[in-house]
Amino acid sequence: MLNTVFMPEIALMLTALVLFFMTLGKYRTGTVQAVSLVLTAITLVITFASLGTQGLMFYDVYQIDALSQLFKVVIVFGLFLVFILGSGLVGIEEKLHTEYNMFLVISALGLMFLSSSVELLTILLSLEISSYALYVVIPFRRGQGRLHVEAGIKYILFGAASTGLTLYGMSYIFGMAHTTYLSELSEKIPALVATQPLAIIAIILVMTAFFYKLAMFPMHFWAPDIYQGAANETTSFVATLPKVGAVLLLLRFVAVAGVDISQVTWVLAAIAVLSMVFGNFSALVQTDLKRLLAYSSIAHAGYVMIGILTADAMGMAAAVFYVIGYLLMNLGAFYVIYNIAPAGQNVTFDDLKGLSRRSPLLALTLLVSVFGMAGIPPTIGFIGKFMIFTGALNKGFYALVVIAVMNAAVASFYYLKMARAAYCAADDERATIQLSFGAKLMGTFFILAIILIGALPQSILAAAKQAVATIL
Amino acid sequence: MENYLILNTLNYPILSLLLIVPVVGALVAMFLRGDTLLKIWGLAVTLVTALISLPLWTSFDQTTAKYQFVELRHWFPALNLDYVVGVDGISVLLVLLTTLVMPLCVLCSWTYIKTRWKEFLIVTLLMETAMIGVFVSLNTVLFWIFWEGMLVPMYLIIAIWGGARKDYASIKFFLYTFCGSIFLLVAIVSMYITTGTFFIPELMNADFGFSYQVWIFLACALGFAIKMPMFPFHTWLPAAHVEAPVAGSVILASILLKMGGYGFLRFCLPMAPAASLYFVPLLLVMSLISIIVGGYLALGQSDIKKLIAYSSVGHMGFVTLGIFLLNDAGIKGAMLQMINHGITTGALFILIGIIYERTHSREIADNSKLGMFMPIYVTFLGIFSLSSLAFPGTNSFVSEFLVLFGAFDKYPLVGAVSILGAILAAAYMLRLMQKMVWDDSDGHVPHGEHAEERKSTLFDCNIREFIQLAFLTIFVFWIGLHPTPLLDMMDSSVAHLLHQIDAGSLLPDAAHHGESHALLEGAGTWIKNLF
Hints:
The complex is a heterodimer of chains A (472) and B (531). Chain A is built from 21 helices and two strands. Chain A has 472 residues and is mainly alpha-helical. A two-stranded antiparallel sheet of chain A has the order 1-2. In chain A, strand 1 and strand 2 (62-64) form a beta hairpin. In chain A, helix 12 runs parallel beside helix 14. The longest helix of chain A is centred in the middle third of the chain and has 31 residues, at 147-177. Chain B has a three-stranded mixed beta sheet. The model of chain B is unreliable at 508-517 (pLDDT under 50).
């Protein structure tokens, strides 16, 4: 029993272990990357095979269900994409390449644990496994002044603060409900939320760590600096995978807080609105692309939150779908950023000039990714927004949806700015960008995935629906 | 569902082919090399699409208001979302207009577009699919996908191949239309939540409450009014028109602007009939302002493209005016006006493109006295200018006459005011023609060296240009002298639409909503007071 359902985690642990032993010797980057890729691919296959399994382990703190397995597939797949995307690891200190990959694997492993955790302390533990690995990885950057050190320290400080708040909230919850198991909490908390204001505060405090991971409004301050300071390949990880894990946990906690519209819903709605407004308006004036994407991710977190706070099957499935689309589109954008910065430097609008001539594939990938993020059909981003709006209107959140669409209009401006820079800016005499075969394949993959899943979203949406059914 | 549809009886899926052929053409174009080959390929694809669309004309059943040539496939069962396409008397002519104008767009770009032909062809063909998709979708989400999907290629056409201020114009175009249409999406989703369907004919029969209709109407009308464009949402149009390359201007003028009118006819009137009735005064006033302001601004332009752009605002004012007269002549006139504006203004933009290639200026002053050098060109210029000012015998006369007839029939004052617009149209078009063809304001005709120099640049139309203009000229006189076939095609659908509005405005649930009665009466007195 344990062997079959726990296989994905075991496979990823072995991957980390193999990479650990490799850190003891000296290997070329190519070897390290190949080993990481192959092992992650094997893990991916195993995780796929584990779709549909069920089980409760380790004194019922670890639950294998449709939701957890879907997110594990997404996490491992994301890790796989991050590894291919960052082939060569040009932004990372040469001697740290093996360690770098190992820590990424460990962080993903923490997120995998997080997907299945259904008990407060286990959740905290998994969260910290994932965070600590990232604390280490963020300053791994080759020669870009001190930005990355600043980023690393900020990430730790904000991370520690938010974890503290979460623990504080957990203490309240334990005090009120006398249990740390989500399944038992979900029976007691809705009644408490209705009667005791403290329960609302406790729930929101517990969510703080996930707001931090997701870069939601009150805990978003780190995002722009860390995005900018970390290496391009690190940012592509930080910007996507932890957010997937955070969304899952938010789904679980909102379900625990009860499916009825309560005070918690209104707090979350306020957070969603502030996230969207703050993220979008700040993104308008950015010139560094990674900083821009950081602000845009704050706004995206707001959209996801709208889906989550509906606390019904339609809205939550929409949130799951949205975050999968977000992962693909963001990785698509980071793929472009990584490839136009051969020395691992940060990319500004200036660097996008003439991209359509220098590399038509990169320009098209960027175009599809940013129009996807803006929610233009027929992309995965459009279906995601469409589903979120449908879910929210279904619950009667008209004002929230109207604010969200106004924000979508604001956001379209800076996404358009990126497309314009790539396609229309005056063509200077920069050299064309040569892409390897693998990189070309990757770009084609992103374009096709973003458009085809947008045109035929049925299967992923069905999986998302099935997944959220387990917590409702 | 079948009550509203006649499934496609042709032995091939005609509407799906119209949607697929340009996309396949675009995909193949990715692998072609050489500008000449690409141009020929683009012309071939658009011509084949046009040929495929012809059975829509010949096999169209005029006796029914049901949707024809319908294809229905399940697409997204979880949301009751189907792929369903079909045409009726309201959309069929717009589909044909699209397919017939697109080959001209390739032809008129033949030498005008000098760089990146491959990309140009790909976005133009994708544009064609999106535009046809808007007119044939019978599903609100499908409609919105094409409606919004159209923004990207159009944005790229302006932003890449546009003029000096292309950045400003393209972003303005994108943001304006995006802001408008995003509320349309909210309306679409909201109607789905209320009724459980995205299927347009079912939504038309949904009988929403009055206050709900008001919201639906406002959300939809904002998007359509921006697209039209109606005063005061028209400011993106001159910018976009002036900066767009000639094909972009033609697509904008001939087809894109029609989508606003089509949207009013397809969404606002049948889905929110009571609200439409309530907003009639507002929309009529906005239409009148569009007509007068558009014409007045056109009078003062020195840039030919800007002049035509403002004249479009005026002409589209006649379209909304006709639509919101809510009578047979008005709506038919509006629909015919959309077709005519597509033909005439499309041709005028092609003419501007031709002269711009020769003199590299769009200023009227730089393009004067063409009569001496380009007799064929000025002949066409004369024909389309007269058509634009609705000279009897040309196409626009029929449609503007119908709208004016409808206006005088219902609200004589409205008719009287809109006559002003027709006078303004005559004034600015005759001024344009006089300046461009003759212009002896400086008292001398070019002679000697100066004339030789002008002659060398101002060569007359070549065969390619002649074919485009001659083709459109046929329609000018055909519709001008014998519009009956087109009006017959609209007949059943317009009658059905008017029936829907009558039935819907009776408001079956009015008894339960005291406020609706009060509002309707308020609307009635508002109209009476106005006129």
